[in-house]
Amino acid sequence: MHALCHKIAAIPCCGRTERRIFSTPCIPAIWPGSVANGKNPSHHLWKPATISAKATPMPSSTSMEPAADEVVVESPAHFRIYKSGRIERLNRPPILPAGLDEATGVTSKDVVLDAGTGLSARLYLPKLQEPSKKLPVLVYFHGGAFLLESADSATYHTYVNPLAAASGVLVVSVSYRLAPEHPLPAAYEDSWAGLQWAASAEDEWIAEHGDVARLFLAGDSAGANIVHDMLLRASANGGPRIEGAIMLHPWFGGNTPLEGEPESASAATAGLWTYACPGAVGGADDPRMNPLAPGAPPLVKLGCARMLVCAGKKDALYVRDRAYYEAVAASAWPGDVVWLESEGEEHVFFLPKPECENAKILTDRVVAFIAGA
């Protein structure tokens, strides 16, 4: 989920007033996975159509009324969602095969975790300096607003490979089901199943080379949102024990903008959340989207020992991310939480600009966090 600019309007609809979010092409937005034809991601604008605050996606169908095929929300370089609930994903990044990455020495493989749902994961094993030494295990959840991306896309394969090499960890990158075809909580359920599978050490790589006593979670944007949910599930279900959680530019929101938060960011989150999670109670104040909402599970229940929260200073979600960090720090949660902000950077800048100085600083901080520094 990236910085999007909208304005709210009240319009009459069938004898009632209906709130809709009208897009205005004012703020550029970078989406994870906006690689087109192998080129680097670029700035795009959230443009046409509307998002109905009460819209409920319907299953895709090959036979539908013409009105059902009306575009209701569109990000021109990324996706179109139709009234029927059908989604067109545009300019998808290439899918890269698993195998040996010559540049980093990391070897990857794909594992199907549930043939019935299609849940899978891509595992990354760095070059072993000491074959007998066990490696920390990092479970990674990709971003994409719950609508886009996968573990095997170029966006994430090219990010996780060097991350595994630099940090010396065995990575399990989860490919969860996407909305709106599979509305939330499907992504959360898949992610939980992936985490439990990784912690069980059923896979031979994890059993032979992984140390599940040093288990870490990480994710960017919607993936960091998933990390929060996983921490609550781990606490409520008696484990697995998680050493640390890395929140990279987490996608959180709420029905009411926080002080200093662009109203456009709050509106965009509320609109997209409608499509990703049509059954949400309270809209964007659903505790899964707004961990600070009244009635949300107390942060003291976060099931990890340490946490790193990161944000870009120019990200429209910066205020929301900072509020989350401060709430965790002020809570009765007994763990240690640290904050890193990247000056002058937008949402998940480290994906399209991995070689920039701030991306290197961020990677170094993640590596140090995993090492316990």
UniProtKB/TrEMBL annotation:
Active site: S221
Keyword Hydrolase set for record: yes
This protein's UniProt keywords: Hydrolase
Domain (Alpha/beta hydrolase fold-3) ranges: 138-350
GO MF annotation list: hydrolase activity
InterPro entries assigned: AB_hydrolase_3, AB_hydrolase_fold, Carboxylest/Gibb_receptor, Lipase_GDXG_HIS_AS, Lipase_GDXG_put_SER_AS
Record bears the keyword DNA-binding: no
Pfam families: Abhydrolase_3
Highest taxon above the source species: Eukaryota
Regions that span the bilayer: none
PANTHER family: ARYLACETAMIDE DEACETYLASE, OS09G0460300 PROTEIN
Record family assignment: Belongs to the 'GDXG' lipolytic enzyme family.
Name assigned to this protein: Alpha/beta hydrolase fold-3 domain-containing protein
Originating organism: Panicum virgatum
Upper taxonomic lineage: Eukaryota, Viridiplantae, Streptophyta, Embryophyta, Tracheophyta
